Give the backbone structure.
Amino acid sequence: MVGLSNNEVRLIKPSSDWLEQYNMEKITLLNTLHPFNVQIEHIGSTALGTIESKPLIDILIGFNRLEDIEQLPWPELRQKDYYLLKVAIKSKKVMAKFSNIETQTKSVVVHMVEKNSDWWHEHLFFRDYLRSTPSALCEYEALKIRLASQFPDDQASYTDGKQAFVNHILKKRK
């Protein structure tokens, strides 16, 4: 079962269900966003498939133009439990699917960026690097386990704690 309450940091053992859940969400999003010619990728730890992960499906959607996001069919997306989050990140928008809107329990986080932008390439490079480098994957999992234990109720600190590792991997892209 995927889903985390607001600010909760909890890791679970790898699940064969993650890919199936991603594929179901991908179909839903492609059907809803087909006029925008989007590209959709599975990212985040659940896309790695073999390490402990937060029970959230992370999805990357590439748009031709970031401005297209303003034209999305938000009433239809809300009917499917997707909501735009008020996250201030330059050149990126984030929406989430809530399995329970009252408790703010998210099951899917969608990162919306321009295709071929730095965001697009960095997310995919990080995923692909970890998939192809077992030692880095093990190091990342150990870091996540330590941070989840240290910050079980502080999503921001958990994420900040991973940043140096992410930056180290992304430097290999250059």
Notes: The domain at 17-173 is CATH 3.30.460.10 (Beta Polymerase; domain 2). The radius of gyration is 16 Å. The chain has a mean pLDDT of 95. The longest helix spans residues 17-33.
